[in-house]
Structures are given as structure tokens and as C-alpha cells.
Specification:
The protein is mainly alpha-helical and about 160 residues long. The chain has one domain. Helix content is about 70%, strand content about 0%. It is built from six helices and no strands. Helix 1 runs antiparallel to helix 6 and helix 5 packs antiparallel against helix 6. The radius of gyration is 23 Å and the shape is elongated.
Length: about 160
């Protein structure tokens, strides 16, 4: 017994992915503004001997957190796009995903990741492209006819060859 249809699951994946990608892009755009508060936050966590101090420093100073988040975001998007492609048969949604793959790769894996302006630009635009891919996948699933639906056919007529 299926509790949730594949269409509903794919739709939920796309909606969650689009929301997460847009929040990620907004986060990347607002981080330069929040940099002024980071020293105070880190000092407060350190002063109160918070166990979150080490986690906060790792998230702020390590590029591995961004790499992990970008890989998870791209993987979730690819899985959702593949499920959507099986339903609507259109490859258009893979174009912004491909752009996101390139942009997030440039922003996290190359030496440009250590230049703050390029790093922010690549991550914001890559996160936005992931969100656009999810939204396009949702739109295509709503507009395109489903491939897996059986065609309406007339009754099947059996013929018998004489002499057999």
C-alpha cells in the first residue's frame, strides 16, 4: 500500500529543494552584512564556555561546511529532477542545475573560493540556479502530460487462424 504517491513526493522534494536553495542564496547574500556581528557572537560563545563555540568556528572558518552543503543541495536537486524527468520527459530543468553545478564548483573547489567577492558571487548565483531548477521542474510537471499514463485504446479483438 502506497501512503504517498510519487507525484506528491516529487512535488514535496521540489518545493523543499527550492525553498532550501533560495534560503541558501539569501544566506550567502547576507553573510557579508553579518560579518560585523561574528566576532561578538564568537566571543560570547567562548566566554560562556559553550560547546557550540567549536562548531560555530568550524562553520565560519572552514570551507568544508560549504562543500558539504553544496554537494547535498546538488544531489537532492538531481534526484528530484530525475524523478520529474521520468514524469514529464523534459530536460529543460537540467540546464539551471548544470549551471549551478559549475557555479558551486567554482565557488567551493577552486582557488576563487578564497577570494571573498568571487566566492560570494558564485555561491549566491549557484544557489539561485538550484532553486530555479526546482521551480522549473515543478512547472514542467504541472504543464506537461504524463508519459507513464496508458493511452486510451479500443477493445482488443482476438483472431483465430483457421486450421490451427
Amino acid at each position: 500500500m502506497k501512503l504517498v504517491s510519487s507525484h506528491t513526493m516529487r512535488s514535496l522534494l521540489d518545493r523543499f529543494g527550492a525553498l532550501a536553495a533560495m534560503i541558501c542564496a539569501l544566506h550567502c547574500a547576507l553573510v557579508p552584512l553579518a560579518l560585523a556581528a561574528i566576532p561578538a557572537l564568537t566571543l560570547a560563545l567562548y566566554q560562556f564556555n559553550s560547546p557550540l563555540h567549536d562548531v560555530a568556528q568550524w562553520m565560519l572558518l572552514s570551507h568544508s561546511f560549504e562543500r558539504i552543503f553544496a554537494a547535498l543541495s546538488l544531489s537532492l536537486c538531481a534526484m528530484s529532477l530525475l524523478i520529474g524527468w521520468r514524469q514529464h520527459g523534459q530536460l529543460w530543468a537540467f540546464l539551471p542545475w548544470s549551471l549551478a553545478l559549475i557555479l558551486l564548483g567554482l565557488g567551493t573547489l577552486t582557488s576563487l573560493a578564497f577570494v571573498p567577492i568571487w566566492h560570494a558571487l558564485f555561491l549566491v548565483s549557484g544557489g539561485t540556479a538550484v532553486g530555479v531548477a526546482h521551480l522549473l521542474n515543478l512547472r514542467l510537471a504541472r504543464l506537461e502530460p504524463k508519459i507513464a499514463q496508458p493511452r486510451a485504446q479500443g477493445p482488443v479483438i482476438a483472431t483465430v487462424k483457421p486450421g490451427l
